[in-house]
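Handout, page 2. Input:
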Amino acid sequence: MPVNRMFRLRPLLLVAALTVAGVGACSGQTAGNAQVPLQGQPSTPATELVGNLPDFTRLVEQVGPAVVSVQAEIGSKSQARRAQSQLPQDDQGDDSGDEQIPEFFRRFFGPGMQPMPGMPGMPNARPRGTSLGTGFIISSDGYLLTNHHVIDGADTVRIRLADRREYTAKVVGSDEQSDVALLKIDAKGLPVMRIGDSKVLKPGQWVVAIGSPFGLDHSVTAGIVSAVGRANPGADQRYVPFIQTDVAINKGNSGGPLLDTRGQVVGINSQIFSNSGGYMGVSFAIPIDVAMNAVQQLKATGKVTRGQLGVQIQGMDRDAARALGLPDASGALVARVEAGSPAERAGVLRQDVIRRVNGQPVYDSSDLPPIIGAMAPGTKVTLEVFRDGKPKTLSATLNALDERAADAGSGTGPGLGKAAAPAAANALGITGQDLSPEQRTRLGLQKGEGVLVARVNGDAARAAGLQAGDVILAVGRADVGSVVALEAQLRAVSAGKPVMLLVQRGGGTRYMAINPAQD
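Output:
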C-alpha cells in the first residue's frame, strides 16, 4: 500500500474505532461501572488452541531498548545527488512502462527528501532534506551502528532512543563498500545489543528485524534466512557476502538489526530486491562479522583497509570449463593480472581458475572478493588454481586494496576513430581489424596489443556476446596484436573445441568462451 494512501485511511480507522467504543460504553456497563456478562459466554479463561508457533515477544522486550531511530539532515548538494540516484526509472521521464523496469537492489532510507524550510519555494535557510533510518547500540558508552547510505553526506545526525531521549551523534567513520557507519553519542549506561556470529547462520533459520519503516518506530517483522553468501549484482559492494531473508524490510529499516532467536544481532538490514520500490519478499543484510571488522578499523583509524590480490576475474560457465579442461564450472576465472601485484609475484597467470583460498572453496567468481577483502594487507594466502587442466598451488602475500584501481574498468571506453580496412572473416565469423597507434593510445593499449572486432557474423560468437567494437587481446593465453596473429591462433585451436577469447570492452577485460558447435 503506498505511503500516502496508508496515512489517508488512518483518520477513517480512528473514527470507526471511536464509534465502536462509544456503543460498547452505552450498552455494556451498569451504573456501577461493572461489565454485564453476555449470555452464553464462557466464564473460564481461553486456552491456547495453536501451539508450537514462534513467539518473539520476549526477544523484542529484551533487545528492543537497544534499537534507535536515525535522522540524517542532508545538505543541498548531497540531497540533489541522492534524490537523483534514488528515483525509480519511471520517475525520471521514462515512458516505457513498468514492464521495462528491471529488478534491482534498492537501499532504503525513507521517507527522506521531504519538503523542509529552505528548499526551493520554501522560506528560510538553504535547501535541505532528511533521511530516516534505524540503528542499534553496540556499547553502553554510546557507540552505535547504522548503514553508510543512511548518513552519507549528512550535516547533522540525530538519534532518538527507545525511551524518547534524543542526541546529536558524531560520525566516527563510515565505509561505503561495506555500507557500515559507526556513530557515537554522549551517553552512558545504555542498553546494548549482543553481537552474534553470522558465520553459523543457515538457510531456514528464523530471524527477526526491528526498525522504523516509513518512520514507524520499533516495528517488528520476522521470517527465515533464505540464503547466505549472496553477491549483490545491483550495487558496487563486492566485498559483502549478503544474508538473504524473507523478512519484510521497507523504507526506514536501513541500518536496523537482524536478530537470531537468541536475540543476538547477526546482520544489518541494508537492501531489498524490488521492481516496485516496495518489499517483494527478498531482503538483504550485511553479516555482522563483516560489520564488526569494519567497526574495529573505523575506531582505530577512521577508515577500512582490505587485502588485494591484484586480479580481474569473471564467472565460469559450461563452455569455459570445457575449453579449460575443468571437471565443473566452479571457480573464478582470471581475465587479467595487474602488473606488480601480489598475484603476479605469486605466479598467477591469465586464464588460471582460482578454486580455493586457504582451503576455502571458491564456487563462483563473486565468492573471491569477500574472502580476500576480509583479510588484512600483509596476510599470506594459499591459492589453489587450475591451469591447463591440472591443479596447482601458489602462495601470495596480499597488499592494500586501492579503491580507485579497483573501480577502474567500469564505464565506457573512448571512441575508436577512423580505422584501417577490416580483414576477411575467419572460421568463427569474426572480422578482425588492425589498430592504429592512435587507437591503441586512446584504448590504453601497448604497442602491438589487441585486434579490433569490425564485424561478427558467426552465430556462436554472437551467442557468446562478442560484438563490433570489442578488442581481442588474446586467444587463450596467447597475446594477439594483429589480424595475422589472430588468424594464426584461431587456426591452431582444435576443430570443434571451445575457444577462449580475452576481450576488452569499455575499459574492462573478460574471457568469452565461443563454442563452434553452436554454428
